[in-house]
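Progress report, Aim 2. The chain analyzed during this reporting quarter is listed below.
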Amino acid sequence: MVEAHENQPPAVASDEGVVRFASPEASGGAPHIEVPVAYDGILLASFGGPEGQDDVIPFLRNVTRGRGIPDERLEEVAHHYRHFGGVSPINEQNRALKAALEDELARRGIGLPVYWGNRNWAPYLDEAVTDAAASGHTKLIAIATSAYSSFSSCRQYREDFARVLTDTGLAGTVTIDKVRQFFDHPGFVTPFEAGVREAIAGFRADGVAPAAIRVLFSTHSVPTADAQRSGPRDVDWGEGGAYAAQHLAVAERIMTALAEEDAAIADVGWELVYQSRSGPPSQPWLEPDINDVIEGLPDAGVEAIAIVPLGFVSDHMEVLWDLDTEATEAAAGAGIRAVRTPTPGVDPAYVSGLIDLVLERVAGTPASERPHETALGPWFDVCRPACCENVRAGFKPAAAGIAP
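Predicted structure tokens for the chain:
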């Protein structure tokens, strides 16, 4: 467990700014809210996905709303969903996660209801927030099913909350805070570490030398210009912004921990790779692509790879298609053994960790006492000004952060 805080990015000035749509305790804009907050409901916010062939194109229209993409082009990417009967696994996974969270809350004797809503498909966030308000639950703490800092994984959810409160007329009645980005919380990291440990042990049991094993930590690629704007703007994160820095820090933590258990694992190579790129070829996105990396591994003497879906909380479409299908096929074509390690899903450590994130806000736990596995954490409760800008659309009103 990392205890030092000297490498944590500094808070951007303007902490005096008011945070819209927030609880009174969070509205002043402090980076970490270290006073108790009496939340009365949990909002589980996710991406959403189609649940049948007839849903696919309407769902993709929702995902790409405002971009003017014709259905003909949407059908070009719809084949990922068509391949699986038009059903994305993400909704069923969220049902399982909601149930697991409710079970963990009941086990601990905590009477907080969980409301679940999606950005792009039913059940929508609008319905979840409206249902919460109708039940008298108006002080919500949100958990988004994404661990890292970027527009699509953090700020867009915060904009969703602001939009929903405005559109439903509940702004001023319902408040929505958000748990900190949990990329380095032990509950999120532990399942990945266990998966990497098991994959390496399996390869070695079959006679593969550690130096011939490579661990590929994979996450969703994003436009480079957006990545550069992730996280607080007064910190030089490098080309990939806070988004890449967070992934790299977690990957390094996992490999360092495993090498401390077994010195031979220090000979296992690893790198951060990207997947699921979309957009025009002229637009720079974070690289290298996982399939390009796999293609070159035989020349580096690699015989086996562990593909670690580090950017994903569950086995949704990008995992099933881009990793279990395309990357696995690329490995077979290169003559390399491949194992895809698990996502957190409903792993007990992950579920318990999410509840711990809620409770640290309920209790107002000091930042110095919050668990984190890298020197970048614990991340902020209230997002700093101008973080995670969408280059194409600019800033829109957002909850759980200081404007813009």
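The CA atoms of residues 193 and 393 lie 37 Å apart. The mean pLDDT is 94. These observations will guide the mutagenesis work planned for the next reporting period.
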